[in-house]
Automatic annotation (TrEMBL):
Coiled coil: none annotated. Pfam families: Acyl-CoA_dh_1 (PF00441), Acyl-CoA_dh_M (PF02770), Acyl-CoA_dh_N (PF02771). Residues 25-98 form the Acyl-CoA dehydrogenase/oxidase N-terminal domain. Its cofactor is FAD. Residues 243-356 form the Acyl-CoA dehydrogenase/oxidase C-terminal domain. Residues 127-218 form the Acyl-CoA oxidase/dehydrogenase middle domain. This is Acyl-CoA dehydrogenase. It comes from the Bacteria.
Length: 380
């Protein structure tokens, strides 16, 4: 498998083996969670117990200290069996990686956060709102924070709060009038006034339980204002998103390959994998998968080598992975035929969940505009 080319250390291989060894029950519970539209609690519990939620926490803070490249590799592996759980916990891994790599918070708050993660905490950055849409569009959030005594009072409604019922901490984006900017607050989920409203009823990524978060006069101490009008940096940790969709694509390719090499209708000799047009489809899938994987991992390598100005590269990686992934799933379903629509199988779920990637940031049009802006230098 092409993925094996990118394994570079023992920790990566150990985790890949561990996930594969538990494949049977992971796939079974993923199917049940998708059907119910509920979180795969058994898998989340297992991941926390095994230390997966500490992958991107630096070693000096008690974690594994894995790079974004390693996280991409493991997220891709997990997503090939349970994409909803991989995407959900990926938000947590990305936040931990970003906060500590770029030292976004004070030393005291990073220490507090690290201790929480060591004890099984799960976090998500909640920014989206129904009126403003994706936070990458730049709309001013209606969620706001006002000074009250030695702290802040937060009010608002956040959408797409993935893993909502299992989060122990919300990193809430709120507008602060007196600072005239968007700020982020570290909000323990057990704070009075925090409430999850069950609004998630979708076709793809059903088991992320990305319900709404209601903030009703939630009070937090002043030290919990962790980010205020910070400089924007190229964030490599958002590549945990395309890693998940790459995993879905890999799973679809595997489904189709297994079917093609084993399905032998009595109208032919051998299997359908011997038929030229099926071979063409298998080869096309493999090419699209390799193209997406190599671009994504190269983007991670560029970041780790110290390259700068990689925002267009990160955006292009997500665009290529998702759109190639949609094509791969479609080709896989054409190979498998009518059986690909059976709800007892996994391929129809891959089809539904892959479409969700179009709506994770950055969106396709934003990426294309960003790449178009790169051409301005040519005319100067």
């Amino acid at each position: 498998m092409d993925r094996e080319l990118f394994v570079t250390n023992d920790i990566e291989q150990e985790w890949i083996n561990k996930i594969r060894q538990n494949r049977e029950w992971i796939e079974q519970t993923a199917r049940e969670a998708d059907t119910a539209g509920k979180l795969n609690h058994r898998l989340i519990d297992w991941l926390i117990t095994e230390g997966y939620s500490k992958l991107s926490l630096p070693e000096k803070y008690g974690g594994y200290g894995l790079s974004i490249k390693s996280v991409i590799l493991l997220q891709e592996t997990l997503a090939s069996y349970d994409e909803s759980t991989a995407l959900s916990i990926g938000w947590h891994l990305g936040i931990v990686g970003e906060v500590f790599q770029f030292k976004l918070w004070s030393d005291d708050m990073m220490t507090e956060f690290a201790e929480a993660v060591q004890n099984g905490a799960l976090s998500n950055r909640v920014v989206s709102e129904a009126q403003t849409g994706s936070p990458t569009r730049g709309g001013r959030p209606a969620t706001h924070a006002v000074r009250q005594g030695e702290g802040w009072l937060l009010n608002g409604v956040k959408t797409y709060t993935s893993m909502s019922h299992r989060l122990t901490h919300y990193i809430v984006g709120a507008y602060v009038e007196e600072k005239e900017t968007l700020c982020f607050f570290y909000v323990p989920a057990d704070k009075e006034g925090c409430r999850i409203e069950e609004s998630w009823d979708v076709t793809g990524m059903r088991a992320t339980e990305s319900h709404d978060l209601i903030l009703d006069d939630v009070y937090v101490e002043d030290r919990y204002l962790v980010e205020a009008g910070r400089d924007k940096v190229d964030n490599p940790w958002l590549m945990h998103i395309p890693a998940v969709y790459l995993g879905i694509a890999q799973g679809a390719r595997d489904d189709a390959a297994i079917f093609a090499h084993s399905h032998s209708p009595n109208s032919i000799e051998g299997t359908i994998a011997d038929i030229p047009h099926i071979q063409s489809k298998l080869g096309e899938m493999e090419l699209k998968l390799m193209t997406a994987r190599h671009f994504l991992y190269h983007a991670a390598d560029l970041h780790q080598s110290g390259a700068r100005g990689l925002a267009p590269t990160f955006g292009a990686a997500k665009h290529i992975v998702v759109n190639n992934g949609i094509d791969i799933v479609d080709i896989a379903m054409r190979i498998i035929g009518g059986k690909s629509l059976e709800k007892a199988g996994i391929i129809e779920r891959r089809h539904r969940s892959m479409r969700a990637g179009l709506h994770n940031p950055p969106m396709d049009d934003a990426v294309i505009r960003m790449l178009a802006a790169e051409t301005q230098d040519i005319s100067r």
